[in-house]
Design a protein that fits this description.
Blueprint (H helix, E strand, L loop, with lengths): L6 H34 L2 H32 L3 H34 L7 H26 L2 H9 L1 H21 L4 H33 L22
Helix pairs in contact: 1-2, 1-3, 1-4, 2-3, 3-7, 4-5, 4-6, 4-7, 5-7, 6-7
């Protein structure tokens, strides 16, 4: 981060970065708890996870207001302006990560202890581990202003997509083999799609971190392995 002759300016930018760090920690926690509630069918944990999402909404509004104030008062240019614009975009992606995790928690309540086979949820758990690793690494890249690490996170997006495609086919097979599996498999498919979207939001953050640091856009096409053809509505 550039140092300025006006110390208050540095403090304002540091405060925005601090809010991003707080959002990142909360987002990681919500995702972990939502999928943990799914695996254990813990309805109380799921409900508590849903309530935590409100803090992300508050922080997003706070960051947007701070950004507007800094732009109005300091008229930033170059690196400073990229920092502020990236913070707004990253905050928006983190808020959406919270929404995706909240959707998973809502599915736990909808299933209501009717998850007959924990084996069916293992794939979702594995997807979550990869998506969370992406999210953690890209937030570290943001903190360190590490463009190369951000690029690496972006290039790993295909790993989550590949697992989602495999899980989609596996759950579809279970549904075709036994109609009694349809309800729980459908819920798990929705959960898996939300986790896959969390990986996409981590990739968005990576692209914004790269631009923030270098002033250049990653122009090569993202690697994608989602072959399901499912349209995602990003239900909130």
């Amino acid at each position: 981060m550039t140092e300025h002759t006006v110390s208050a300016y540095d403090e304002e930018l540091t405060a925005i970065a601090g809010r991003i760090a707080e959002m990142g920690g909360i987002a990681e926690d919500i995702v972990t708890n939502a999928v943990g509630a799914l695996i254990s069918q813990d309805l109380d944990r799921a409900q508590a996870t849903i309530l935590k999402d409100a803090r992300l909404d508050e922080l997003l509004v706070d960051i947007e207001m701070r950004n507007v104030n800094v732009i109005a008062r300091r008229q930033p240019m170059g690196q400073d302006l990229r920092e502020i614009m990236a913070a707004g975009r990253i905050a928006n992606d983190l808020e959406r990560v919270g929404d995706m995790a909240k959707n998973v928690a809502k599915r736990v309540i909808a299933i209501d202890s009717d998850l007959k086979s924990k084996k069916l949820a293992i794939g979702v758990e594995h997807m979550t581990e990869l998506a969370l690793a992406q999210l953690k690494d890209v937030l570290d890249a943001y903190t360190r202003r590490d463009a190369e690490e951000a690029r690496k996170v972006r290039d790993r997006d295909s790993e989550v997509d590949a697992i989602y495609t495999s899980l989609f086919r596996e759950l579809l097979t279970y549904m075709m083999e036994d109609p009694r599996n349809i309800t729980q498999c459908a819920h798990l498919l929705f959960c898996a799609k939300n986790i896959e979207r969390i990986g996409d939001h981590a990739t968005n953050i990576a692209e914004n971190v790269y631009y923030m640091v270098t002033g250049e856009r990653l122009t090569d096409e993202r690697p994608r392995m989602d072959e399901t053809g499912v349209v995602d509505s990003e239900e909130a």
